[in-house]
Amino acid sequence: MADLKGCFLHNTDDWQTPKEIYNYFMNKGYIDPCPYKSEIDNLKTDLGGVNLFINPPYSDIKSWVDYALNHIKNHKENNIVFLIPSRTDTKYFQKMLTENVDMGIYFIKGRLHFNESKNSAPFPSCIIKLEMPKGKKYILEDFKNL
Predict the structure, then answer these.
(1) d(CA 13, CA 130)
(2) Model confidence pLDDT, tens digit, residues 10-52
């Protein structure tokens, strides 16, 4: 596992999605392939033709981006939504921008509170929507419009 000391106040990948965001996507029929505290490695599982909501372990975002891009190529009618740190300089972020998929991004104002913590995350977050190409990269006004 990667050294997380520069990313979190605690050396762990156990960060539960804020309930408002999680419930929003679950109520829209999205499937979460890496739920909080899961012991199942769904990186090797083809979940079929479903929309996915992914709040990946932040020590391995790259693997989940690769998984999502493969899922979209195999299931062209589906969308992938990520909740990730807003780190636009990373290789995984740049890969999403340059792959042959459409990408919408919503930069979350302020800092999220994970695990119902009183303290906010030490980094900004964003919601990214990936879908088969129609020739657009765009800023989402509001994730509720996904």
Answers:
(1) 23
(2) 566 667 899 999 999 999 999 999 888 888 889 988 898 899 9
